Amino acid sequence: MKPNSIQQEILLVTSTRIPEWQLERTDIYDKSQHLSYTEQLEEACWNGLLDDLLPGTIEKPTSGKKLHLWQVRSGSSFIRIELCTFPIVIEKQLSIDPYFFVPQMDLS
Questions:
Q1: pLDDT tens for residues 39-74?
Q2: What pTM was computed for the model?
């Protein structure tokens, strides 16, 4: 029997900004590092601050299992965040990542 995995994808659009004061209050914010805005967001996610930046966004499974940050990927105008109980391959046509689902669309 295949174990159930809970998976959540989040797209952060990098053309809209999370207020700088929210990044400033995190431990990763350091103007001397000269990180781009996208790099600052990625660092904040990897450092466990996603729930602080976007409260109420992360799904809380009823099973009691915790969702773990599995992947953070940058696109041309977004950051794709993948959370899951354990890693599985995302079916491209079910993903919210435009690089996955747009090529699958029948645009004729």
A1: 888 888 888 888 888 888 887 777 777 888 889 988
A2: 0.72
Cβ 7 vs Cβ 91: under 8 Å? no
DSSP-assigned states of every residue in 18-81? --HHHHHTSTT--GGG---HHHHHHHHHHTT-HHHHSTT-S---TT-PPPEEEEEEE-SSEEEE
Average pLDDT rounded to a whole number, residues 74-102: 81
DSSP category for residue 100: H
| Contact call for residues 8 and 67 (beta carbons, < 8 A) | yes
- DSSP letter at 2? P
The span from the CA of 39 to the CA of 3, in Å, is: 34
